[in-house]
Write a structure and sequence with these properties.
Elements lengths: L1 H26 L2 H23 L6 H56 L3 H16 L3 E8 L4 E9 L6 H8 L2 E2 L4 H9 L3 E3 L11 H7 L4 E8 L2 E9 L8 H78 L2 H6 L1 H32 L9 E3 L1 H19 L2 E5 L7 E3 L1 H15 L8 E8 L6 E7 L3 H12 L1 E2 L2 E2 L10 E5 L6 H16 L4 E3 L6 H11 L3 E5 L1 H5 L2 E6 L6 E4 L3 H10 L1
Parallel strand pairs: 8-10, 14-15, 14-16
Antiparallel strand pairs: 1-2, 1-6, 2-3, 4-5, 5-6, 7-9, 10-11, 12-13, 16-17, 17-18
Length: 585
């Protein structure tokens, strides 16, 4: 009976082992191999007991066979266990990677939903891809429509990455279609993976990548449909084999970023179109007013021109009837009146020509330059004749030097007259009484190029600026008085790219100041606070407002005058009133 039970058990164990082994061959799963091996082990054990009882003299032989079976079975068990553990580890790693990929996709979606600008979105996407997928350096290359090149825009890197040379070289580079890794992605429109860029002959920055210790790399397009907006490439310091799942995920991210960029650019184009329409409407109104003014000026000039001609004729007639002694006595006055009437007629003609130009501009016409031979000495003489009365009233002498020796030139005499007239007319009020305005001409050594110089004495803007800086500066830079400061207030956000609250508060205060008529500057550069403070002090902006997370947690902002040694805090809610009070005080 015992022998029958042992035989039946052996058959069942061996039959089960055959079944599990066939299943393991079909599925390749480690647990089926393990169960098959256990079936063989227990089946052989039962056979050993079955055949060892009748032949006790051969007990050692059968038990040696039993021992060998145990060793073989344990080998199979160990192999199956190792395979099962490896498969389990692989499954856990795949699950972990899948979780990080899902986290990366969620983070990118959130960044695209919250970002106000393309630069903020791209920087956030680079950071998320690097931190969640274990890449240490990422760059964004933007497509230039006009030049058809990929140009560096922004980057992110892990804190422990030292690749300054590689980064500097990348910032100075551009890529054409099919050139380098990003150029190949542009040409194919698909993501690409390079296990080791140092060994890739098509990677242009291989030498610098090797010096920076960068090896593995991938790149994917940022696009919407057939329209490419840019390429993102990432690097790591380890050699990494391609991962199809990662490439597919990155291709999807590239489409999401491309849709975001397309939407932002469409919004920008709409804003520009609206601004252009408003500008065109404003220009249309200006054109209408200019047309009316030109028409009125033309009507007003007609009696002036006719009156000047009539006055000249009447004066000539009256002067001709005077006795010789009387005519000789008033001859200087007569010459003066003749000069004045001629000036009125000439300037009336010039004004009429300018009015015609205004009318042509309103009609969308532009008069081309009328080049003809002219003498610079005659043009300057006509300008001086027109402005002589103004100069005499200001006690300013008008001089010309070296103009008679200049050759005849080809120029638009009307426009040349207007240019010199504007210069001299603007100079006369600035010259102190007893001063002079001089126009000097000179030929170069070849005798082919004539140069005009104009000199005058006056205070001028540059002297005012120099004097103000001389009286208002310290070791850190300029200290502008409020009245002549290029900007009255500078708003300095701290760590704005990483803190939406800081960015929103700084932009709100800046917009409030602009709306209140305050000349304000928003320093939204991605720089350290010390750099921003030093630059604002060097420029000399009188009032500085600092917006930071620590202050906002307490509901306060920081204010400091350029001359003050210490800063003071004030309530965020009263920011506009506080700053306006400082400006008034």
């Amino acid at each position: 009976m015992a022998l029958a039970v042992n035989g039946l058990a052996a058959v069942l164990f061996l039959a089960g082992a055959v079944g599990f082994w066939l299943e393991a061959g079909r599925t390749g799963r480690a647990e089926h191999q393990l169960l098959a091996t256990l079936g063989i082990l227990f089946g052989l054990a039962e056979l050993m007991f079955l055949f060892s009882a009748p032949w006790e003299r051969e007990w050692w032989t059968w038990h040696f066979v039993r021992f060998a079976a145990y060793v073989l079975a344990l080998t199979y068990v160990s192999h199956g266990y190792v395979m099962m553990v490896n498969d389990t580890r692989k499954a856990l790693a795949d699950t972990k990677r899948s979780g990080r990929r899902l986290a990366a996709e969620y983070a990118v979606t959130r960044i695209l939903a919250e970002s106000a600008t393309i630069k903020d979105a791209v920087n956030g996407v680079l950071r998320v891809v690097g931190e969640n997928l274990d890449w240490e350096l990422g760059m964004f290359w933007e497509m230039e429509k006009q030049n058809q090149r990929l140009r560096f825009v922004d980057l992110w890197h892990a804190p422990d990455v030292e690749a300054d040379e590689f980064i500097k070289d990348s910032k100075d580079r551009t890529f054409t279609r099919g050139e380098g890794l990003v150029g190949r992605v542009w040409a194919t429109g698909k993501s690409m993976w390079i296990p080791d860029v140092c060994a890739d002959p098509g990677f242009r920055r291989a030498d610098m990548a090797a010096r920076a210790g960068l090896h593995g790399a991938f790149a994917f397009p940022v696009s919407k449909g057939e329209r490419l907006y840019g390429v993102i490439d990432c690097f790591t310091r380890t050699r990494r084999e391609p991962d199809r799942d990662v490439l597919e995920m990155l291709a999807d991210l590239g489409i999401k970023v491309g849709v975001f960029v397309d939407r932002k650019r469409t919004e920008q184009e709409l804003r520009e179109t609206e601004a252009r329409l408003v500008e065109e409407e404003r220009l249309a109104e200006v054109a209408r007013v200019l047309g009316d003014i030109g028409h009125d000026l033309k009507n007003l000039l007609m009696p002036i021109t006719g009156g000047a001609e009539l006055l000249e004729a009447e004066l000539s007639e009256c002067f001709g009837t005077l006795p010789e002694t009387t005519a000789a006595a008033i001859k200087p006055a007569r010459e003066r009146t003749h000069e004045l009437t001629e000036m009125i007629k000439q300037n009336s003609r010039r004004i009429n020509d300018r009015v015609k130009e205004i009318a042509d501009s309103v009609k969308g016409l532009t008069r081309p330059p009328q080049f003809a031979p002219c003498r610079l000495a005659d043009v300057v003489s006509n300008v001086y004749q027109t402005l002589r009365i103004l100069a005499d009233e200001q006690h300013v002498v008008l001089r010309a030097e070296g103009l008679d020796s200049l050759p005849v030139i080809r120029a638009d005499e009307s426009r040349l007259f207007n240019a010199i007239y504007n210069l001299v007319n603007n100079a006369i009020p600035e010259v102190p009484s007893g001063g002079s305005v001089t126009v000097r001409g000179r030929l170069d050594e070849s005798g082919k190029q004539a140069t005009l110089y104009m000199g005058c004495y006056g205070i001028g803007v540059t002297r005012v600026v120099a004097a103000a800086i001389e009286q208002n500066h310290d070791a850190r830079g300029i200290i502008w008085p409020d009245a002549i400061a290029p900007f009255q207030v500078v708003v300095v956000p701290i760590n704005a790219p990483k803190s939406p609250r800081v960015r929103e508060t700084a932009e709100r205060l800046y917009n409030d100041l602009i709306a209140a008529g305050v000349d304000a500057l928003l320093d939204d550069r991605d720089e350290r606070p010390g750099v921003k403070f030093a630059d604002s002090e060097l420029i000399g902006i009188p009032h500085r407002v600092v917006v930071g997370d620590r202050g906002l947690e307490k509901g306060v902002l920081e204010y400091r005058h350029r001359r003050a040694e210490a800063a003071e805090e004030f309530a965020d809610a009263d920011a506009l009133a506080f700053v306006r009070g400082k400006l008034a005080g």
